[in-house]
Automatic annotation (TrEMBL):
It is found in: Cytoplasm. It catalyses: dTTP + H2O = dTMP + diphosphate + H(+); UTP + H2O = UMP + diphosphate + H(+). Nucleoside triphosphate pyrophosphatase that hydrolyzes dTTP and UTP. May have a dual role in cell division arrest and in preventing the incorporation of modified nucleotides into cellular nucleic acids. This is dTTP/UTP pyrophosphatase. It is an enzyme of class 3 (hydrolase). One of its GO terms (biological process) is nucleotide metabolic process. NCBIfam families: maf.
Length: 188
């Protein structure tokens, strides 16, 4: 198999790939992550995953690249990372007692092929009290996380229900990623 590169600086994606025994290096591309006018969210995450893979493949053309982009979506709007405690609380009030989706575009590419898929997972939160929000903010975990939470951490206690891939919510749907990797290897 060709040298494997993860096109991401996400420690969660790295941990997930290590969890399934993959040997890889990391190269995080710098691409414009702006949403295009009239772009649907599933198209957005898939486009970014493909662009990340292509950017790294241009630097290492004999390698196989795994790239991904994850967005949290509520009411057809992307919910980003909180910029402050107040912003985190605003996000949590929005998601409180509601269902939202986590969409990840995954791309696996080499010099011959570029394969991608979008994976959707629905997450339902319990209602958040002011105490819940204060307690969670105090952990430091919400900082730098889309939607202001990390399902693999302290926030798990607020998740009422999940429908779909757990690893997708963490940042990389492992089953689908491995399927794409297998398809690339068979085609090489």
């Amino acid at each position: 198999m060709a040298h494997l590169i993860l096109a991401s600086s996400s420690p969660r994606r790295k941990e997930l790939l290590l969890q399934v025994g993959l040997d890889f290096t990391v190269c995080s591309p710098d691409i414009d992550e702006s949403v295009l006018k009239h772009e649907q969210i599933d198209g957005y995450v898939e486009r970014l995953a493909r662009q990340k893979a292509q950017a790294v493949l241009a630097l290492y053309p004999s390698s196989t690249v795994i790239a991904a982009d994850t967005s949290l979506v509520f009411a057809n709007q992307i919910i980003g990372k909180p910029e402050s405690k107040q912003h985190a609380f605003d996000i949590w009030r929005l998601l409180s007692g509601q269902k939202h989706e986590v969409l990840t575009g995954v791309c696996v590419a080499n010099a011959k092929q570029l394969l991608s898929v979008v994976v959707r997972t629905e997450v339902e939160f319990q209602y958040f009290s002011a105490k819940d929000m204060d307690e969670y903010w105090a952990t430091g975990e919400p900082i730098g996380k889309a939607g202001g939470y990390a399902i693999q951490g302290f926030a798990a206690k607020y998740v009422k229900h999940i429908n779909g891939s757990y690893s997708n919510v963490v940042g990389l749907p492992l089953h689908e990623t491995i399927q794409l990797l297998d398809q690339i290897q068979q085609g090489s």
